[in-house]
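User: I'm curious whether this sequence folds into something compact or stays loose and floppy. Could you predict its structure so I can see for myself?
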Amino acid sequence: MELRQLQSFVTIVEQGSIGKAAQKLDVGTSALSQQISKLESELSTRLLQRSALGVTPTPAGLAFLKQAQLVLRHASQAVEAAQSSRLVGYVSVGFPPSTASILAVPFIKIMAERYPDIKVHLVESLSGNLVQLINSRQLDIAIIFSQDIDKNWFLQPLVSESMFLIANDDFLKIYHLEDYLKLGSIPLKALAKLPLALPSTNHGLRKLVEQQQIELNVTYEIDGLSLLMNTVSNLCVATIQPGSAFINHRHQHLNFLKVVDPSIDRTNYLISFPEDELSPASLAAKAVIRSCIHDLIEQQAWPSAKKVE
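Assistant: Here's the prediction. I'll summarize afterward.
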C-alpha cells in the first residue's frame, strides 16, 4: 500500500467522482481506477460503490477513509518536521466558552513562546458540538464536560469547577438575597423558583443543574456565554455558571455566590485521538493545556477550581 493510493482514494471520496478526482490529481481516469482496484484487491474488500451519479464509500470505505486521512496528515507533518530543526505542525483545539474565557489566552501565549512553528486552530463551541467535531476528526483535542464518548478516544479528567449563582444588585434586593453576600455562598434550596437564564436543555451545564432536587424557573434560554452574562448584568434575572464564566465580567458589577449545601461541581475532561495516533504538535498542545491549568490553579486565578488527580 502506498501513500499515493491513499491520496487517490481520499480525493475520489471528497470529489464524489473518479473523473473529477483525476482532474484534480492531474492523472488519467483509467490510471486512477486501476489504483483503486489494486487497493481494493490488497484489502480484499470493496471501498467504493459506483453508480451513474458518481461514487460513494461503502461502510468499509468510510472506516478506511478516516484512517487514510490520518495517515496522510501525519505524513505531511513528518515532512515538515524533517525540514525543520524545530517542532512544526498543526493542531486544532476546542474549548467550551466558559473554559475558553480563562484558559484560551494563556494557552495561545505559551504555545507561541514554546512552539512558534506550530500552527494552532482554536475553536470555541458548546461541549456537545466539540464532541461531534472530535468524532468527525475536525479537531485533534478538546475540553468537554461529559464522559459519554466513544471508548476509542483518550479521556482524562483535568479540573473540577464549583457552580455559582450570578446576579446583579437589583436582583439580590428584589429577592431578598443580600444577606448571602456576606457569606459569599448560597444554599441550593434558595435557588428554587428564582428567575434564571440558562443554556438550552441540550447543554451539559443545564443537564447538570436539572439533576439537582430543586424547582427551576428558567425564564430565558441562552446558549451564548457573552450574551448570557450581559443579560444577567442588565436584566432582573440570575444564572448558574462556573467560576471561569465571570473572569471577564467583573466590571459589570455582578455578584457571585457559590452554591452550597450541596455544592454543584462540574469536571472538565481532556479528549483527543488515542495517544498513539497523535502528532507531535498535538502532544505538545496537550502538555501545554495541562501546564496552563496547573499554573492557573496554583496562582488562584481560576475561582473554585480544583485539579483532578
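Summary: The chain has eleven helices and 13 strands. Residues 3-82 form a domain with the Arc Repressor Mutant, subunit A fold (CATH 1.10.10.10).
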